[in-house]
Each structure stands twice: as C-alpha cells, then as structure tokens.
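Ticket #4471: structure export looks truncated?
Reporter: QA, pipeline team
Priority: medium

Steps to reproduce: submit the single chain below to the structure queue and open the exported record.
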Amino acid sequence: MEKNGSYWHQVPAGPNPPDEVYVVVEIPKGTRNKYEMGKEFPGIKLDRILYSSYVYPMEYGAIPQTYYTDKDPIDALVFMSQPTFPGVILRAKPIGVLKMVDSGDIDNKMVCVCLDDPVYKDLKSYTEIPEHILKETENFFATYKALQNKKTEVNGWEGPEFAKKEIKDAIEAYKKLFE
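Actual output as written to the record:
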C-alpha cells in the first residue's frame, strides 16, 4: 500500500502514544450518519446512514497511523461532555477496550476520554464511566447492525494496559506496512 493525503497518513498517532493519542472524529455523538476517514484522499466521507433508529452514544473515530486486524485504522470511542463534528482531531487517553466481533472479524474499540474535557480527562479506567453509559454502549454495538442482517458480538471490556498494547501493536503494524 502507498501513503497519500488521507488524515490516516498525515496526522500522527499522537503526541505521546500509546498514553496520549490523536483521534480523528468520524462520527459525533447523537447522529445516525456513519462517516469515515477517506483512505484515498483527505477528508471525511459519508459511508452510510444507520439502518436502525439508534444514534452513536459517544464520539467515534480512529487513531491515525495505526493498522488493526480489520485492515483499517484502530477504532476509538471517545467519551466527552460535548459533541464535536466529523474531521475534528482531539487528544485522547486510552482507558480500556470494548471487545467486539463484527461479521466474524475481531473489531475491538479503544475506549478513550478527551484530555481537553474537564469532565472526563481525569478518568483512568473504563470502570470509572457510569455503569449505565457502559450498558448503553454495549447495547448500541450489539444491535446497531441488526437491520442490515449483520451480526455483531460484544465480548466484554479490558482495561487501559490492554488498550495501550493494542495501540502499540497497531502502530507497529502501520509502520511495517507503510514505512
């Protein structure tokens, strides 16, 4: 593969990965629009509108200059008090992992908090997120593709050390592929 002008290749993985990463917001909290970083060009493109009536319960994006098991940049769920918009680059701290399988493939989501949000920045583990928000997150990802006849599985949570290892591995995989 070859690098191009995509945010995936132009934005670094973070100021101090894996402890502090950049997340390119693809989908703001409260929307059904599924946006993605363009892989072939700079910017964000509309992938689809969710088939369900659900809305994303958090900011959803990707950590640039990473390559994960699904052949995409590693996914990041960012908990913060205010929604942003597609294309925003924010500083985030990994505090856990939502373990998932999507259509038979591992598709774990890194759980992060926005470092520039005074409400969330001091959390150190996903276990500090209110239990109901974690249940909403699990429910969303377990069911949001049902009307597309696609199967997703939520297989629990892992802590911040697991998240940091996944991010390190995804950065190394990116370097092997693109450098």
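Status: closed, not a bug. The export was complete when the record was re-opened. Leaving a note from the reviewer for reference: The two ends are 10 Å apart (CA to CA).
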